[in-house]
Amino acid sequence: MTKTILVTGGAGFIGSHTAVELLLRDYRVVIADDLSNSSAKAIEVIKTLGSADVSFHEVDLTDEALVAQLFDEHPIEAVVHFAGLKAVGESVEKPMHYYRTNLTSTMNLLSQMAQHDVWDFVFSSSATVYGTPEQLPIPESAPTGATNPYGRTKLMIEEICQDLAAADDRWRISLLRYFNPVGAHASGQLGEDPRGIPNNLVPFVMQVAVGRREKLQVFGGDWDTPDGSGVRDYIHVVDLAAGHLAALEKLRAGCEAYNLGTGNGSSVLEIIGTAERVSGKTIPYDVVDRRSGDIATSLADPTKANRELGWRADRNLEAMLTDAWRWQSMNPMGFAEN
Q1: Cis status of the peptide bond prior to 143, with omega within 30 of 0
Q2: Best CA proximity match to 61, nearest among 114, 109, 10
Q3: Each residue of 232-277: pLDDT tens digit?
Q4: Residue 57, beta-bridge partner list
Q5: How far is residue 56 from each of residues 44, 78, 81, 234, measured CA to CA in Å?
Q6: Is 99 a catalytic residue?
């Protein structure tokens, strides 16, 4: 019998791409999203690309009664949890908002899962749980120590999950630590559509390329890297979505953490150069001072996910930015114009 999966935050960037992949694998999908940083228009695109219907609920997961209603109305058998606030800078300015939203929503979900006899949980965590890395590439066994409230909410949720699994062996939990998701669906119909000024590099680069923003700021040109700009491990969002399916299908008793990344690093200047090549546009930029809390290099060691989940990220940087540009050029103002 086809499983029903609850996807929280399913109208967002990573959630929407994962929902499409779930539908293509013949899962039934229920999406819960409060649309605070996403668009309801993504739901229609998910249905089109996934060639199936989804049940969509505009729900604030900090309201436990509404969470209970989701489980009462649908025969949910597993949860993939993306919903949450995610801007590092904003989390520093509004820590209570981040702790209240991210922790309360997750505890409500886990509580209602247990009450409804649902024990399979895939959590959208982050490489920010590692803080400043002591070794590169970073294995799952590396020390954790988030350096901002956003990262600390991810780490606290991981610890809650570990405690739950230790207390009750019915829980089967995967903690997926993403590195830097970029790209878009190959159709150009689904991609990253941040509200306001993008917090992440690639959507900002693409908005400059499409003429929506004047120029880019590169934070620091004197890092200890080959070209002086920061190096990160970028992963195509469709590869990342496939990682969630692999984790869901390989869940086992207990709580396991997995890095989802490529193990390869690209610098900010390399991103700009590749984006100029795939878009045919000049992308002006200024090199400015480093940001507080930034690090020179972050790279995943994805060996555990490769080995235990049978998953591997195989789209390269050019493919990532080609797909990101296709989405941006077809949708210059994102979902707002559709």
Answers
A1: no
A2: 109
A3: 999 999 999 999 999 999 999 999 999 999 999 999 999 999 999 9
A4: 32
A5: 10, 16, 15, 30
A6: no
Cβ count near 288 (within 10 Å): 11
Helix segments in the chain, DSSP class H: 13-24, 41-50, 64-73, 88-93, 95-98, 104-115, 149-167, 201-209, 237-249, 268-279, 303-304, 317-330
Q: Which of 201, 209, 191 is nearest to 267 (CA)?
A: 201
Going along the chain from its start, the domains and CATH numbers come out as 4-182+234-261+302-313 (3.40.50.720)
pTM beyond cutoff 0.90: yes
DSSP for 216-228, written as a single string = EEEE-S-SSSTTS
Write the CA distances from 223 to 134, 229, 249, 251, 302, integer angstroms: 16, 6, 40, 39, 24
- Choose, from 98, 130, 150, 258, the residue flagged as catalytic: 150
Q: Under 8 Å CB-to-CB from 55, ≥6 apart: which residues?
A: 29, 30, 31, 74
Tokens linked to 338: 């559709």
114 touches 39 (CB < 8 A): no
The answer to whether the beta carbons of residues 37 and 62 sit under 8 Å apart is no
Torsion of CA 136, 203, 37, 41, to 10 degrees: -130
Compute the distance between CA of residue 325 and CA of residue 189 in angstroms, rounded to an integer: 11
Cα–Cα dist 30/51, whole Å: 15
Residue type, 217: Q
Write the DSSP assignment of 160-191 as a string of letters.
HHHHHHHH-TT-EEEEEEE-EEE---TTSSS-
Q: Cα torsion for 265, 267, 273, 279, to the nearest 10°?
A: 60
What is the per-residue pLDDT across 95-117, written as a single tens digit (0 to 9) for each?
A: 999 999 999 999 999 999 999 99
